[in-house]
Amino acid sequence: MKYILSILFFVISLTVDAQEFKKYFKFATFYGAVNGGTSISDIDVYSITNGLETSTVQTPFDYTITLGVRKIARFGYENRANTFYDGTETSWSDGASIGKVKGLEFLFEADIKRQEGVNYLDQHHFIRYVADKYILKGEYLEDGFADIKYFETSQRYRYNKGKISFNIGLSQRLSEPYGYDPLEEWILDNGDIHYTYLAIQEGYKIDVFNSEYKDPNGNIVATNVEVWEEIIIPQVLADYVERKRNELDNKMQQSLVIGIDYYYYKKSFWLHTWINLMPWHYDDGGAFSYHKYNNNEQWYDYSGGLIFGYKYNKHLGTFVEGKYNKYWNREWYDFKFGINYVIF
Question: Average pLDDT for residues 209-222, to the nearest whole number?
């Protein structure tokens, strides 16, 4: 994390000197918040192994701890309704390549979460500098729920045509080697997985004559093959995949990036949309190159967003908002739409 933040702050140093820091942090907002709520309800589990037994599975409450600082100009359609930033805000326009104003804008936010008993660490940090003819941006994203994490920088030439902004340039992404499948070497010719030998390699001990299955610490985890195959083996595979993925170094991906941004706003109608496409990626020939997992062919990575609002009259209005991302065949997205009718 220190390495990533150092790179992001280096991007700032390319555009402003130390004497201008006070100017660029003016109107920035530092915020911290804790949010919580009830998780899924308790679940009763019944067993008849030693007579009727009942146990209750309890899931602890959900929470989010948020720390952040942001300086991003709001578009005309954005309304800051809350008095304070509480960490639950969703600003769809943060995903756009170009902000409302030229110059330096930034966001640094980290969220420690527990959702349905599972802990996550989400982070989104970016710095962008928009000028008449170019765009510089550095971004770090970690989404634990979507299982995506990468650091990206881009340098783009910008061309404006009315309300449309075209841009083209290069992008560099640092991430784990997505596409790598640690279980591939354990797949048999018939498509099944050789899970018994994999479990033994991981330290599990199997005594089929006495129906005892022990974990690497010597604890009995199953006393029949059904529990072993349906409960223990899936966990063995998940732990193995996670460990093998964590053993690999991050990989740099160089790509061509093309983008289009469009923004139009009036009080009764607004449209803001953006698209970023990476149609070509440099193949360094490495053992963990994504080209290898894509049959040595090029692929399309892309992201985009749409914010639309229309007030038919003083009573009726409709809106559509959302953003979509697809990198290395991994998807994450958000959306909402609806109508409003004011009665008076």
Answer: 88
